[in-house]
Amino acid sequence: MLQMFYPTQYLDSVEQIAFDRLYQEGCRGVIFDIDNTLVPHGAPADARAQELFAHLKKLGYRCCLLSNNKEPRVRMFNEKIKVKYIFKAHKPRTANYKKAMRLIKTDASNTLFVGDQIFTDIWGANLAGIRTVLVKPINPKEEIQIIIKRYPEKIVLFFYKKWLKKQAKQKLSGK
Predict the structure, then answer these.
(1) C-alpha to C-alpha distance for 103 and 97, rounded to whole angstroms
(2) Nearest residue to 18 (alpha-carbon basis) of 59, 49, 68
(3) What mean pLDDT comes out for the span 43-62?
(4) Helical (H) or strand (E) element with 71
(5) Cis peptide, bond prior to residue 92, ω within 30 of zero
């Protein structure tokens, strides 16, 4: 039952994602959450984020920001990034994940979603059939509604890690 919340991959940060390899394997679009995924909550696009998007564009990726925030926040972050975006996305509802793929002309088979929250970002992308990468939050200081969600996320991550170990054992034993 908890598997609907499991990411395809769980990494420390966006910098650990092998975007070059994924592009060679056929990935063409990346949808990103913003706050605590790319920058601390409320921050503008920093040099690191700007370099990331410049690299992704150079590789040929089409990108979209998908945020539950209001437009002024998303637009401010996007000023230096200049990609498609959707604000007030109502994640985990799937409608705007699908809209994001239409905007960047990709589909679930060649799109990656990157976010820091299981019950909004990852669950919604999983429901939309998109490959997911969960990254650890950049800043542990968060709004109270997010802090409250982090406790059940720890339970999901505990079982996710056990599930990964079981998958690895089965792979080694050839089952």
Answers:
(1) 10
(2) 59
(3) 97
(4) helix 71-78
(5) yes
Place of tokens 């601390």: 40
Q: What is the mean pLDDT of residues 118-140?
A: 94
Structural tokens at position 171: 């792979």
Q: Is the dihedral of CA 9, 15, 18, 24 positive or negative?
A: positive
How confident is the prediction for the chain on average, in pLDDT?
Answer: 94
Helix (H) or strand (E) holding 161: helix 144-173
Work out the burial of residue 175: count CB atoms within 10 Å of its CB; fewer than 13 is exposed, 13-18 middle, 19 or more buried.
exposed
Beta strands in 17-135 (DSSP E): 29-32, 62-66, 84-86, 111-115, 131-135
Distance CA 153, CA 17 (A): 21
pLDDT in tens, 17-40: 999 999 999 999 999 999 999 999
| Rounded distance between C-alpha atoms, residue 76 and residue 69, angstroms | 11
